């Protein structure tokens, strides 16, 4: 049996991203989405979500390149002193601080709880969590996030470790670096699964699409679908509209968001899923 969760990240980033995610759910194959608590279009996302009862939403926890929900004075190890209480902008710098033990785990837990609680206060039934930039692949981030999720009654978390054969991207040099990074991180997958199980939480068998982020097109998308292994997997997507609002956001994903929206709402995509016997589920179905 092959089951697939198709999750749209960055709900709340801009109104255009929000509209695209709802379209990809209502008219396409997106089954779940994760909402950013401190993003500028959070309120707009909540209003849209309420118009679609039953839409499965999780919390897209942001600890880098964004703003905290907590008072910055309470999470000083997570913020950049030169950016007026904002998070560290660069992933590499944040990861280095985490590995060196420079991040207070209690502060990570406090901020994660605050972000989840903001969604729940807006009457969002939060089914699962994941992280911006997949930071919970690092054990130093994962452990306090698991505690935060349990404290807020959440039982599911994204498995950020991906499987995509190099043969699928061999002719795409732009993806080689991402593929290499994902492959290196996969060494932490066993540790991740043990930590999740120890907390009594659940997770899919892994994630697809991470190595193709920003370069996903119709050909690669269908190749990945054809090669999904047995089990329950998550396909990570970033649909959106590349508009003036997105121009004001610091993100490398712009035109690629519209490409993904077209893929996710295409009848060929739904036909391909059916042809390969892949069952679409949400995180709520997983629970």
Annotated CATH homologous superfamily: Glycoside hydrolase/deacetylase
Helix coverage percent: 40-55%
Assembly state: single chain
Low-pLDDT stretches are none
Q: Output the CATH topology.
A: TIM Barrel
**Count of separate DSSP helical elements:** 13
Task: List the helices and strands in order.
Answer: EHEHEHHEHHHHEHEHHHEH
- Total number of strands: 7
Write up what this structure looks like.
This protein is of the alpha/beta class and 287 residues long. The chain has one domain: Alpha-Beta Barrel (TIM Barrel), CATH 3.20.20.370. The protein contains 13 helices and seven strands. Strands 1, 2, 3, 4, 5, 6 and 7 form a seven-stranded parallel sheet that branches.
Brief characterization of the structure:
The protein has 287 residues and is α/β, with parallel strands linked by helices.
Features of the shown structure:
alpha/beta, TIM Barrel, 7 strands, 14% strand, globular
What are the SSEs and their pairings?
Blueprint lengths: L1 E10 L3 H12 L5 E4 L6 H9 L5 E6 L29 H9 L5 H17 L4 E6 L7 H13 L14 H4 L6 H10 L3 H10 L8 E2 L9 H9 L4 E7 L6 H4 L7 H10 L2 H9 L2 E4 L1 H4 L1
Parallel strand pairs: 1-2, 1-6, 1-7, 2-3, 3-4, 5-6
